[in-house]
Amino acid sequence: MTDSSPFILDVSNCLRDSMPEQFRTVGNTPVRIGAEMIGVPEGTEVVVDGIITNLGGGVMVDATVTAPAQGECVRCLAGLNKELNIHVSAVFSGSDDFITGDDAEEGEDEVLEIVDNTVDITQAVIDEAVLSLPFNPSCENLGIDCHDSDTDVPEPDGVSGEEEKADPRWAALAEKFQNLDEK
């Protein structure tokens, strides 16, 4: 395996021996994985466990990526922490006609390729993370009530208790337009 990224895998042994090869890599992710509101920040340590299987003219990588995801609740802005487990399967070609055959049509999906006896599953991990993480993460997704968190944000129905607090998500606008109420 390589030191540069936990998602770049050496497949030379599997290509030579024709036997499935188990692997485990641990390293820092070179890019952010996930959506805008929740994801694995760049530089976070990830663990990749899986099997590389020889398919004749290519290989299949079947892996599970484990990493801590961080984000914010879209409702109350409380920090969210979640252990992320992503399963990816990707096929990589060792030759031009591995999957498509000799009479491949133009415009078909591009097949990932083995380059210098390595494969890169980074994009497959990013794609799967975006599909598996919630687009609008909230405390409810993790089984927590938003009003139980220690923030100044009112409860979702707008009732925040006895004292009236400005919603911090709109505080900048309230400051900018506070003079309009005085006119």
Number of strands: 9
Helix and strand content put the structural class at: alpha+beta
- Determine the N-to-C terminus distance: 68 Å
The major pleated sheet works out as: 7 strands, mixed
Mean pLDDT: 79
Low-confidence stretches: none
User: What's the overall geometry?
Assistant: elongated
**Gyration radius over CA:** 23 Å
Explain this structure:
The protein has helices at residues 12-17, 122-132, 171-176, 179-182, and strands at 8-10, 21-28, 33-34, 38-40, 45-54, 58-72, 79-93, 112-113, 118-120. It is an alpha+beta fold. The strands form 2 sheets. Strands 2, 3, 4, 5, 6, 7 and 8 form a 7-stranded mixed β-sheet that branches. Strands 1-9 form a two-stranded antiparallel sheet. A hairpin with a 3-residue loop joins strand 3 and strand 4 (38-40). The longest helix has 11 residues, at 122-132. The radius of gyration is 23 Å and the shape is elongated. The relative contact order is 0.17. The mean pLDDT is 79.
List keywords for this structure.
9 strands; 7-stranded mixed β-sheet; 4 helices; alpha+beta; 183 residues
Please provide a brief summary of the model:
With 183 residues, this protein is α+β, with helices and mostly antiparallel strands. Helices cover 15% and strands 33% of the residues. The termini are far apart.
